[in-house]
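Sanity check. The docking grid for uridine-diphosphate-N-acetylglucosamine depends on where the pocket ends up, so I'm generating a full predicted complex first rather than guessing from homology. Inputs follow.
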Amino acid sequence: MDKFVVKGGKKLNGTVSISGAKNATLALMPATLLASGKYELYNTPELRDVVTMSKLLQTMGVTFERKGKTLEVNTFRVNKFEAPYEHVKKMRASIYVLGPLLARYGQAKVSLPGGCAWGPRPVDLHIEGMKKLGAKIELVRGYIHAKAKRLKGARIAFNISSVGATGNILMAAVLAKGMTRLENAAMEPEITNLVEMLIAMGAKIEGIGTTTLEIEGVEELHPANVETIPDRIEAGTMLIAGAMCGGTIRIENVIPEHFSSVTARLEDAGVKLAFSKTSIEVTAPKSIKPVDITTAVYPGFPTDMQAQWISLMTIAKGTSTVTDTIYHDRFAHVPEIARLGANIEMKDNAAIIRGVKKLSGTKVMSTDLRASAALILAALKAEGETEVLRVYHLDRGYETIEKKLSSLGASITRVAGEEF
Ligand code: UD1
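Predicted complex below; grid placement will be based on this.
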């Protein structure tokens, strides 16, 4: 397990390019199961989760070749329809193979993902949706066994907006017989990216970018080449790094409207931002104003930015409250950030943060992906040296983060290999 050693207090200046979105790629890759042939997925980030998804799809007969930022995918020889626990336990998004396998091959056996670092994350909406499309589903010894001759279109009104369930059922419905109507569908940009790919493959989908998607099933699809959107969470994380550390940094290859809920709150906090169509320049203010946030589905403030916002608020001039309505228990980072000198009190699903004058370096432990990012941000600001342990979480979702931050002037070094 690697760790990062961060010497805090360095100003950040310069330009950094944002990678392709992890959560988009993890949907686009399994979508290739829907039609045999060759695909080119442009702007695919090199991440541990992408490797995990590749390994999972390889067990089914899919082959991959990476050429720079392009991932070439070949699905000619798909002959297995199972997602084993070994892969699913590493990454929940493995469940995305359920819809495409069921729709195209009439069968799928997918391990239940189990819990995660921030509590139970059920997959009932995925299962109920597939049942509504006519699949026969049994749960046998921790596995979802799904079968269907041909799925049939249906009206599915989600009681909770779910990114994963929307993506999964969408991938099933495109090959179902007849019309499917998804109500209260997730409209996160990563879902829109998936819809664009499916349309390019020949799917008939109306309502792109809205919460109602109407899908007219087709007999078959064909491969298509598609560009992965930029990672709005990496972008938001880099903006907070800029806001916390002083100096001016420019983030490039972004779609600013994908994270306007984050940039608007940053401006409320007194951070200066200059926008172009595909870049944002952030200049750190003298002091950060306290700003409350409450996470919500898109276009609200993303839960995936909640931990990083807490880091920013630890050095604000005053008290702020960060409430997570999507994952009530997603606060494992709080006691770790507190080890750096932050003053944070938990009340149910809210963190009350009383800004402090300074943070001080020490050893801290990553507990999950975004928690790790929050710890790196706090470490960049803290006086002295911080060791951030277990950064394998970070490698799941941030491409070469230490190189990107170093290029901006941060002192951050990866120490490889030992048991930290
Ligand atoms: C996706 C993202 C993750 C992000 C989350 C919320 C990917 C690979 N991951 O996760 O980074 O934090 O969206 O934006 O895209 N729920 C149910 N039953 C279900 C499914 C979900 O009750 O069957 C609940 C969840 O517990 C949660 C809410 O719905 O409270 C939203 O979760 P969901 O959007 O499904 O998250 P994921 O797709 O797993």
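Relevant for the grid: The mean pLDDT is 96.
Also worth noting: The longest strand covers residues 3-7.
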